[in-house]
Amino acid sequence: KAYPNQPDILENLAFAYLSLPDTMLAAFYFEQVFRLDETRIELLPYAAKAYASEKQWDAAAKAYSTYLRTLPGDLISANALSDIYLTLGQPKAAIETLLIAIQSNKRKANANESAKLGHLYQELGNTAQAKSYYNVAVASKDQDARITALLGLMDIAVSANEYDVAKTYVLALNKEAPEKLSKHKAYKAYYNWQTTLEKERREATRESEERRRMAENERKRIAAEDAERRRREADLEYQRIQEENKRRRLEEERKQIDYKKHLAETTPATPPLESYNYDELLQIAFEARGAGQTEEAIRAAWAAVNKNPNSAAGWYELAYAHMDN
After folding, report:
1. What is the pLDDT of residue 272?
2. What is the dihedral of CA 218, 223, 229, 232, to 10 degrees?
3. What's the pLDDT score for residue 259?
């Protein structure tokens, strides 16, 4: 109170309040010092941090903005301000703040900065730029940046229902950060998709197996019916052949009967051998033997012998008939 406009005293007072802590009074006095002496701009980040700790985002953003207008290359403050802008729902301002700081250092964004810029562009809705920065982070050796980028890329893929693309990032995250993956919101959507897909595949496999089984059963049924049809046809053909053979046999027998009947009706009756004399019987025996009718020849020769037992010719013819037989 005795020295209200002394920057040194007010600065010490600000740090004293910060250590209590009474962050709001500390922030007030840090800004009071800057207003009295703008060369003490390095105190503004303290004021901004104090405001941020009390969630006074607008006041914190104002303090950081004032500071960065003078020192735009302070990446710590730029990162802090970009976080505040993101909290306030201003991703575009967050991106601009971070890009200005990186450009002021005359270099490209490193892995962590690329991961953060990817997230900011994602929040802005510019997925093309987001993926571009995320891919830079994924290609780096910084594991934290890689994990952040992979989670972001998975978010974008899932939001676009590109689950096959998301699968690539899920597999990578499952190796590098399975705990973070399992707790991530987008993973739940991916898991539900994967579960549904596997269920559909199982159902499709079951339906395919059922169709295959039904087709196999139908094939067996048709084969059995075909085999039964061929068996019946074979049986009918066998019966037809048997009936045809029987018909032919009966026909042949009928023809034989008819022929014999015809012969009996047309052939004159042969007189009995006893009606012939001795010489005629010898002639009949001789002719029958010559014709190969040995039975007839034997009967005629015997009849001749019976007519004349003392005739050598009769016995001679009988002997030859037996020899031929």
Report:
1. 81
2. -130
3. 62
Q: Tell which residue, 6, 14, 20, has the closest CA to residue 48.
A: 14
pLDDT value, residue 261: 72
Which backbone phi and psi does 71 adopt, to 5 degrees? -125, 70
Residues 6+ apart with CB under 8 A from 159: 186
Q: Which residues contact 122 (CB under 8 A, 6 or more apart)?
A: 130, 152, 155, 156
Spatial neighbors of 134 by CB under 8 A, at least 6 apart, are 114, 115, 118, 149, 150, 152, 153, 156
pLDDT score for 257: 81
Residue 2, pLDDT score: 62
Give, for 43, the enclosing helix (H) or strand (E). Answer: none
Which residues make Cβ contacts (< 8 Å) with residue 99, sequence separation at least 6?
A: 117
Write down the residue that tokens 């269920």 correspond to: 199
What is the residue type of 33? V
Please state, in angstroms and rounded to a whole number, the distance separating the CA atoms of residues 72 and 64. Answer: 10
| Per-residue confidence (pLDDT) for residue 75, from 0 to 100 | 97
Q: Residue 93: CB partners within 8 Å, gap ≥ 6?
A: 82, 85
Query: What is the value of pTM for the model shown?
Result: 0.61
* C-beta separation of 102 from 109 below 8 A: yes
The ranges of the chain with pLDDT < 70 are 1-3, 259-260, 262-270
> Other CB atoms closer than 10 Å to residue 148's CB: what's the count?
23
